[in-house]
Write a structure and sequence with these properties.
Tetracycline Repressor, domain 2
Amino acid sequence: MNVVDKGEDHVKMRILQATKKLAATKGFEATSVREICKEANANISLVSYYYGGKEPLFEAMLQEFIPIPVFSEQLRHEEMNPIQGMKRLIEQMYRFCKSDPEISDIVHQEFTLHSERIDIIQKYTLPVWLLLRHYLEAGREQGVFHFHSLDHTFLQVMGSILFGSNEAKSLTIVTLLDIQLVEQGDPLEELIVYILRGLGCTVEQIDNK
């Protein structure tokens, strides 16, 4: 890669990072290209030059910062039983949400607004939820997960993963309720045990898988 290519990549990354920062703060719809380029210290014409406009920039941002398709594909090809698969999936989603809360906020905003960009978001998030559903079905068939409705269980587990991975939102509710947290363990481990125990796994099954 020559110096020019490196320079272009650096500018592109600044634009993508600025887009993510502003979209998480005020929403993508309310963020202008001018604001993005000012934040990125980039010429306003570069958004059209590199991405073809504001809307394609949104997908470029997701492609850069959402690793879900990659790690979902990796998990899909690993030989794991349903309990192992669930543990790995929860861990990957937890670490992703913790490492980049801005992307999580953007996705939440777009779904709340029922925006036209939901189809694009699903392209980058759906693989992990399809995998979650697969693990739930396989676990029930093998007798290690116990639940009645696949649909309801899927939604409850998905909600637990998303909410349990968002420490900022959790602490906001704790503050509003004026609750003193006195038994704080490892949040990831607690989340895994909470979900798997809710699915009917014993402590021994969780520890041994």
